[in-house]
Amino acid sequence: MELGLVGLGRMGANMAKRLLAAGHHVSVYDRNPDAVEAAAGQGARAAAGLDQLVAGLPAPRAVWLMVPAGEPVSQTIQALAPLLSSGDAIIDGGNSYYKDSIARAGTLREKGVDFLDVGTSGGVWGLEVGYCLMVGGEEQVFRRLEPVFQALAPEDGYAYVGPSGAGHFVKMIHNGIEYGLLQAYAEGFELLHASQYEIDLALVARLWNRGGVIRSWLLELAERALTADPGLSAVGGYVEDSGEGRWTVAEAVERAVPAPVLTESLFARFRSRQEESFGAKVIAALRQEFGGHAVKTP
Question: Three-class SS of residue 144?
Fold first, then answer.
């Protein structure tokens, strides 16, 4: 198939390589000309702008976006829409908020342009092992573009999950669960690290993955990281969040669904960014006031 790809960051560039390896024809554009040049060296057709990208695609056109969620997606769609014709399609493969995707699909539908929201998981490993793709939108559009999904995903690694917004909704919950899993592993390994035993944490990660109930790809990655740096001395304890965890917790509140593990895992990330917690100071001060408990000075 012919496909336009906008955004050649860590995932977008690898997706272009995987599509090219599968025999698809890929036209690429990125604001960084070096990224475009690198993709062209892999066999992609370079475009100097969105207008050139669209002009080089046969109808019905399909343009896949791999740009940051929020305003960058909105701006790119606003620039693309006038260049496209009825029957063309835009695919948002980034981590957009599902309600934004529903709104974008409605706006583009008025212009006759189709829109698919594709939750994409796999990170930097997607080139090698494939991407898990959660596709929302009109099912007939999904079917038309299915060869692209087949090329990007491993076997049984993509699915049509529902109408507009469903793909990004499923990906949002996927990432919310990821927060909880990461926090559980973090707490477990911290307990092992703090124990009275000299435990080889990489060995334990490998051991648990050989038939243990908690085996997972995350444990494989833990083994990799702990083998390279057993004490994680080169890693700071600051943990960022990219939005999906917050959206998942907000959804739980909106629908009155109890999600204490996912919520606490998000809050734990906030705590990781504090050099010193003022709230902890309040607790220490109150304990001293009512019980005479000693406090540590800075």
Answer: helix
CA distance 91 to 27: 14
Distance CA 72, CA 52 (A): 19
Cα torsion 136, 116, 258, 186 to 10°: value is 110
Q: Is 115 helix (H, G, I), strand (E, B) or coil?
A: strand
CB atoms within 10 A of CB 139: 12
Helix (H, G, I), strand (E, B) or coil at 204: helix
Name the pTM for this structure: 0.93
Q: Among the options 171, 223, 244, 251, which is catalytic?
A: 171
The one catalytic residue in 2, 37, 146, 178 is 178
**What string of DSSP letters covers 47-106?**
-SSHHHHHHTSPSSPEEEE---TTHHHHHHHHHHGGG--TT-EEEE-S---HHHHHHHHH
For residue range 129-160, list pLDDT tens digits in order: 999 999 999 999 999 999 999 999 999 999 99
- Asked if the peptide bond before residue 58 counts as cis, ω within 30 degrees of 0, the response is no
- Kindly give, in sequence order, each residue whose CB lies less than 8 Å from that of residue 217, ignoring residues fewer than 6 positions away: none
Is 239 in contact with 272 (CB distance < 8 Å)?
A: yes
CB 167 within 8 A of CB 135: yes
Active site residue 281: no
Q: Catalytic annotation on 99? A: no
Confidence of residue 242 (pLDDT cuts 50, 70, 90): confident
Which tokens hold the place of 161?
A: 């999950």
**Cα–Cα dist 152/31, whole Å:** 23
